[in-house]
């Protein structure tokens, strides 16, 4: 078994162990933590986070980054609400999802076509999305009259799930399957590892980058549209908290900041950890500001220890592989 394979599965294992330890810790401090009502609330936090984090993870594996999530997520939520009364909720959701994909395609095309760093491109598209949102909302909270659709999305299914969480979890699973079992996944890893070598070998690197951003746009579009309908309201402005948590989940889950290495399975574990911390701290009466502070501290800590942990884990796995051989 290759050391690289062992390494990235070890990073994913760390994320899952931390998530399970967090669950055990909150459950031991308060048995009600594992009651169906709280598990339902936990999945309502986890499902959009894991979906957006998986989409961002694909972009990072391709060697890029997507800051535009902060602007496109609230925009698609706003659009789904704004159009609901005029075209109907189902069509409004589809239009909002298409808008999310459109922003992803735009990000990918500009990045690939003009070889501009994706950080700069997605900052620009984030500002564009926020501006469009303010133009639509006019500084006001936009509401929709179709409350039935929101109630249907959030109604409990099987005790702990909702239709909203199930849809998001299914799409996240499809993204993981696409990355692990299709040619696109191989192209994403190759482009992120060494774009020039992949291009020289005949791989469609530009197409791969565009596809990666489109997947992120799809994830953000679906998650944002469903949130807008479930809340029956939307507003303009950035959603920095979601971007912060999605990036934390991707990095903590083992996605390399340099691209080409990592596993979305680890991202799922890290997203679960963040959702458990958010839910558990809220369950204990902690303020949302404190929860965001904890998320930011985790991201900073992960970035600081990433390279030392990388070196230690590689040495350990390589020595173990040699001793076994």
UniProtKB/TrEMBL annotation:
Protein localization: Cell membrane
Membrane-spanning ranges: 39-58, 87-106, 118-137, 157-179, 207-229, 241-257, 264-283, 289-305
A GO molecular function held by the record: transmembrane transporter activity
Species of provenance: Arthrobacter crystallopoietes BAB-32
Keywords: Cell inner membrane, Cell membrane, Membrane, Transmembrane, Transmembrane helix, Transport
PANTHER family linked: ABC TRANSPORTER PERMEASE PROTEIN YPHD-RELATED, ABC TRANSPORTER PERMEASE PROTEIN YPHD-RELATED-RELATED
Coiled coil ranges: none
Name the record gives this protein: Inner-membrane translocator
InterPro entries: ABC_transp_permease
Membrane topology: Multi-pass membrane protein
Keyword Methyltransferase: no
GO CC term, one of those recorded: plasma membrane
Keyword Transmembrane helix: yes
